Amino acid sequence: MRRGSWKIRIFIGLAIVAFAFIQRCNNKQENPYTGRVQNINMTPDQEIAIGLQSAPEMAQQHGGLYPDQRMQALVDAVGQKLVNNSYARETPYKYDFHLLADDRTINAFALPGGQCFITYALFSQLNEAQLAGVLGHEIAHVIGRHSAERIAESSFWQTLTMGATVGADMGSIVGNIGQNTLLKNGRGDELESDELGVMFMIQAGYDPYEMIRVMEILKAAAGPNRVPEFQSTHPDPENRIEKIKEAIKKYSGR
């Protein structure tokens, strides 16, 4: 390739990289509920729309909704109790709580904007206070805008990778760095949600020590061959337990 062509490629690549960083700086905003400065490129209304649009597909992936309306009503009641007794009620998000029919996968998760899910496999192992701990954790993911932050970070690294690829064929290296960054941030999201989940439990009148029991259930479910913490987006349950104890002391003084 001619020297002039290389210069043009490098110039275009640098321009794309510069655009990525400028856009990232412009997207910085402080979360009014957590106080953390985040890279966010969408509004709460857009988060809500994404969550509502994605909810049916996510439910379908887990066998649909659990058919027993009494159990679904319990999930709704506990979730709304947490929302109504915390600053979650002051947020613009629309909280809905879904009990999934999946009786094999122990899991709970939240979509942007307030759609929260728990599988029957996990639900069936919990008492009400433990259920509150799980749902409080998922509410915290919504308030923390963790999915929106991951989307913005992913967009940043995709743009950066494109610029590096155009400029110097370094896209794969930059992309790997981006993935590692997202992995670390994911662990921080889980710890932040654990802490806020404890606070929501206390405010709603639940025993926060039941959150520790939830961690023990998750640890037992993973078995002796669970993935080491450094290879997972979730911190090891043992480390989460220590952080939960700190949060209990912080918010309840005991």
Q: What are the salient characteristics of this protein?
A:
64% helix; 3-stranded mixed sheet; hydrolase; Peptidase_M48; single chain; Mito/Outer_Membr_Metalloprot; metal-binding; two-stranded antiparallel ribbon; mainly alpha
Overall shape: it is globular
Helix content: 55-70%
Gyration radius, rounded: 21 Å
- Measured by DSSP, the beta-strand proportion falls in 5-15%
Q: Can you list the strand order of the major beta sheet?
A: 3-5-4
Distance between the termini: 69 Å
Query: What would the average pLDDT be, to the nearest integer?
Result: 81
Number of DSSP helical runs: 9
Structure classification: mainly alpha
The tally of domains stands at: 1
Indicate the low-confidence ranges by residue numbers.
169-185
Largest sheet: 3 strands, mixed
What is the N-to-C order of secondary-structure elements (H for helix, E for strand)?
HEEHHEEEHHHHHH
Cofactor: Zn(2+)
Family: Belongs to the peptidase M48 family.
Pfam families: Peptidase_M48
Keywords: Hydrolase, Metal-binding, Metalloprotease, Protease, Zinc
How does this model look, in words?
By secondary structure, the protein is mainly alpha-helical. The protein has one domain (43-252). The chain is 64% helix and 7% strand. It is built from nine helices and five strands, in the order αββααβββαααααα. It has helices at 3-26, 44-61, 69-84, 120-123, 128-143, 146-168, 171-203, 210-222, 237-252; strands at 28-30, 37-39, 96-100, 108-110, 115-119. The strands form two sheets. The chain has a three-stranded mixed sheet, sandwiched between helices. A two-stranded antiparallel sheet has the order 1-2. Helix 5 (128-143) packs across helix 7 and helix 5 crosses helix 8 (210-222). The N and C termini lie far apart (69 Å). Its cofactor is Zn(2+). InterPro entries: Mito/Outer_Membr_Metalloprot, Peptidase_M48.
